[in-house]
Amino acid sequence: MPFRPEHSYQEISDQLFAPCEPTPVQAPQWIAFNEALAAELELPDNLWLSEHGLQIFSGNQVPDWAKPAALAYAGHQFGNFVPQLGDGRALLLTEVVDKHQQRFDIQLKGSGRTPFSRGGDGRSPIGPVLREYIVSEAMHALGVPTTRALAAVATGELVQREQAEPGAILTRVAASHLRVGTAQYVLALKDFELLKKFADYVLQRHYPDAVSDEQPYLALLRQVMNNQAKLIAKWMSIGFIHGVMNTDNMTLSGETIDYGPCAFMEAYDPATKFSFIDKRGRYAYQNQPAIGLWNIARFAETLLPLLADDPDQAVAIGTAEIEGFQDIYEQYYWQNMSAKIGLPVETAQPLVTRYLTLLQQQHIDFTLAFRYLGDANQERLQKLFNNSADWQVWHADWLTAIGERDITALKTKLNTVNPAYIPRNHLVQHVIDAATEQGSLIEFNRLNKALSKPYLERSEFADLMQPAAKEQAVTQTFCGT
């Protein structure tokens, strides 16, 4: 089928975006191009690692199929409401409809100032671009709903942060860039017809089966809530910490978005946080489910005028719905965690709880503790726990629970659930340092190759499985803005 660029979101209202051209750069060069994703989107061949594509994905040319625009949104940032945020360094180029009739946004990130830049330069250093490329593609390979990385381009210019750093631009693909913060922005405009139009658009784009529901806007709340509960449960099962779960970083599609200060936990500790700006641990690992509920409550508030004519009745309807979030989340969480030890939920729950307690007490790597359960023998697992008496008791109880199941088949299945490779903080930082200081992408390409098949253990990537040594540890992450 032919390439099908469209601009449906911009047809809703010109209040929801600001037309804006990308700022050209001096000397663009390719860093990476995701050919597999380009094929899925059926993008024209002349965009693939070509000079033409380079000029477009660097912002130096605006093709006739693009209508670049910065999207408007609001958001609660660390609990404080900001009525206007918007894309301060990103531009939506177009939407495309793939061969499966699925619609995706294509967006430049780091392409220069917009009307929402609030004094910023609209640019990105190479570090955050590489981080988002690596982690978003790793999350996709891990089976986590996520935005994707289509391209990364070096700008040939320096970006000033604490020091001058090489600049870069990411091309991001998303089911949409509509956020809880977008709905908050629309509500703040106090235009009922526009709010209804926006909600109808979200329904039609992401939840078409709910359009004909007797209460479509309640169905919308239910669907968004379900997707967020499912997403956060998946994060928790792989030790992912988003780091900045503001309402403007929570998509209505249920995809993970914005990989600024994100990180993967190594030694298991529910209080783990990495984000430098998260001083009080609001977005620590253990708090992510509660923040998901808090964000859903904010989304429910935007739908109140659509849930009932009577405000008190609308609040009652919305409250009753979001009170179910915890149960939905728990169901997804235990499905994920029980699969990680290969047992039914009711059998797995006490064993998982005990296992996590052991991990925390002994400072054991979260990823390896589950991955090594799938080994043919238990040498690596024994060594990980220093063959402690507590571990031996737990392991014996786990084997008893497995009972007469085919242990070989079960362990093979575990290795399709528990990854060997995750984008560990020190590995990502090593990639960034090599690119920034030496101009080398060798480590970037190697890490991406390993992460593209995270469940397939390969001897040539053995070093990429291991947690950071003490001198390698990266304990803080940054947004890059």
UniProtKB/TrEMBL annotation:
Q: So where does ATP get bound?
A: G86, G88, R89, K109, D121, G122, R172, R179, D258
Quote the catalytic activity from the record.
L-tyrosyl-[protein] + ATP = O-(5'-adenylyl)-L-tyrosyl-[protein] + diphosphate; L-histidyl-[protein] + UTP = N(tele)-(5'-uridylyl)-L-histidyl-[protein] + diphosphate; L-tyrosyl-[protein] + UTP = O-(5'-uridylyl)-L-tyrosyl-[protein] + diphosphate; L-seryl-[protein] + ATP = 3-O-(5'-adenylyl)-L-seryl-[protein] + diphosphate
Keyword Ubl conjugation recorded: no
Q: Name one GO molecular function term.
A: magnesium ion binding
Database matches in Pfam families: SelO
Query: What cofactor is this protein dependent on?
Result: Mg(2+); Mn(2+)
Is Hydrolase tagged as a keyword? no
Quote the catalytic residue positions.
Answer: D248 (proton acceptor)
Under which name does UniProt file this protein?
Protein nucleotidyltransferase YdiU
